[in-house]
Amino acid sequence: MGRAPVPLPALAASMIVPDGMRKPTNDVLERVSDAMMRLDDQLTMFAIASA
Length: 51
Prior knowledge:
Blueprint: H1 8-16, H2 26-50
Helix pairs in contact: 1-2
């Protein structure tokens, strides 16, 4: 059975947002945004290296 890709924002949020948090604070949203940028850079480098 194939697996669907995970959107980058969902991946970043899953690593940062605490379980049970109903509405993320501005601080948490900023940390998610920073993580998305870092992950995007790292995944891009990985994709280039794998090509």
